[in-house]
Design brief:
Blueprint lengths: L9 H6 L15 H15 L3 E6 L4 H4 L4 E3 L1 H7 L8 E5 L2 H10 L5 E3 L15 H13 L5 E6 L4 H9 L3 E3 L4 H9 L4 E5 L2 H10 L7 E4 L10 H6 L2 E4 L11 H10 L4 E4 L5 H6 L2 E2 L2 H9 L6 E5 L2 H11 L4 E4 L15 H12 L11 H15 L3
Parallel strand pairs: 1-2, 1-3, 3-4, 5-6, 5-7, 7-9, 8-9, 10-11, 10-12, 12-13
The structure holds 1,3-dihydroxyacetonephosphate and iron/sulfur cluster.
Length: about 375
């Protein structure tokens, strides 16, 4: 697997210097050899190692995970394995950062390729959030409780935690908003406007009570009266993968497969959730489709590795297809290759740690506070 990176995001530019690239000798290995060597290294490390795998990981990686899950479930797993010295996170950077904050002090968290970021997480920078907070004060907006999606940098989580806010995931966003509304009049939610809008709407908050804060505009591009009337202030961020799902795609699959059910991740746009039959986190999608009656036909609006794996698992009793006929790939999740996993594990066997993710001590306390609020809200 070549470690050439054609286009660098802001996140990648920030991490490229610390990233230890895959050595040449790990390129061009056969699948069978990689499987055998990963299994051998894993067996040698035994209880000293735990491998966590997000549902968007490739088959050839996730099959080695000790635990799989959505962001919430994986964050919860950290506390269950305090004896493991190494936590190898097959996912993206914000997940590994959260693991580092939740892990015991002796545990080292490793992201096999440090450039596995998240384009949505990059859409909220700490200086933008500081300006937003300052501008909301200048505009005289009272009672703002900040909530950040787990898909954000540790520095953003720390800022939110210090100001009385919380982290949430797609599986506990509604519970977290209820928690926040018990503490203030309005929620500033970042970075994903769609998860914020979809969740608040489901809770009965009308679209008219939501505004979108554009971090590239002075005062978010809003006037104080608009913000004063709002209960939800939604950061102008999104997921470039889930943005691809559209209502015309839903109309098309319904025409082609009468009786089909459509299930989507809440990172898709509001009109897409409205046109779908169900919406929820990756764990929710898996559970709902697995528990559907034999003969069910599903179109799934989320990352293609999850969809293909589910389709293979449930065939022929149930039919599962991607809502986007070209499939939607999260290219940063894809960076965690079996080659990287093999290299990381063989180096750990020899006592060498590469691509460790470390949240600076100065951010750890408030990030932990915000994450603990998340873990206790469900
Ligand atoms: P889940 O927490 O639902 O797994 O979502 C994570 C994610 O990044 C979705 O794009
Ligand atoms: Fe980030 Fe979207 Fe990939 Fe999820 S699917 S990790 S939100 S870029």
């Amino acid at each position: 697997m070549a470690s050439i990176i054609p286009l660098l995001t802001e996140f990648e530019k920030g991490h490229i210097s610390e990233r230890q690239p895959l050595p040449e000798r790990y390129l061009g290995l056969s699948d069978a050899e990689m499987d055998a060597r990963i299994a051998a290294a894993r067996a040698q490390l035994a209880g000293r190692l735990v491998i966590l795998g997000h549902h968007y990981q490739r088959d050839e990686v996730i099959k080695f995970a000790d635990y799989t899950g959505d962001s919430f479930r994986l964050a919860r797993q950290i506390a269950t394995r305090p004896e493991a010295d190494y936590i190898v996170f097959c996912g993206v950077h914000f997940m590994a950062e959260s693991a580092d904050v939740l892990a015991a002090p002796h545990q080292q968290v490793i992201l096999p390729d440090l450039t596995a970021g998240c384009s949505m997480s990059d859409m909220a920078a700490p200086d933008q959030l500081e300006s937003c907070w300052e501008e909301l004060t200048q505009m005289g907006i009272p009672g703002v409780v900040p909530v950040t999606y787990i898909n954000s940098a540790a520095s953003i989580k720390a800022f939110v935690g210090e100001r009385g806010g919380s982290v949430c995931t797609s599986s506990n966003a509604a519970a977290t908003f209820r928690w926040a509304f018990a503490r203030g009049e309005r929620v500033l939610f970042l970075p994903d406007q769609h998860l914020g809008r979809n969740t608040a709407y489901t809770m009965g908050i009308p679209l008219a009570d939501m505004v979108v804060w554009d971090p590239d505009e002075i005062f978010g591009g809003l006037d104080p009266d608009q913000v004063l009337r709002a209960r939800m202030i939604l950061w102008k961020g999104l997921c470039s993968v889930h943005e691809r799902f559209t209502v015309p795609q839903i109309d098309a699959v319904r025409r082609q497969h009468p009786g089909i059910r459509v299930i989507v991740h809440p990172e898709v746009a509001w009109d897409v959730v409205q046109a779908a039959d169900a919406s929820g986190s990756t764990e929710y999608i898996l559970k709902t489709v697995r528990n559907s009656p034999p003969g069910s036909v599903w179109a799934v609006g989320t990352e293609v590795h999850l969809v293909n794996r589910l389709a293979n698992e449930l065939a022929p009793e149930r039919t599962v297809m991607s809502l986007d006929r070209f499939g939607c790939l999260c290219s940063t999740m894809f960076r965690i290759s079996p080659n990287h996993l093999l290299w990381i594990l063989e180096e750990l066997v020899d006592g060498r740690v590469h691509n460790r993710v470390r949240v600076p001590d100065a951010q750890k306390h408030w990030t932990r506070v915000a994450l603990d609020r998340m873990l206790s809200t469900s």
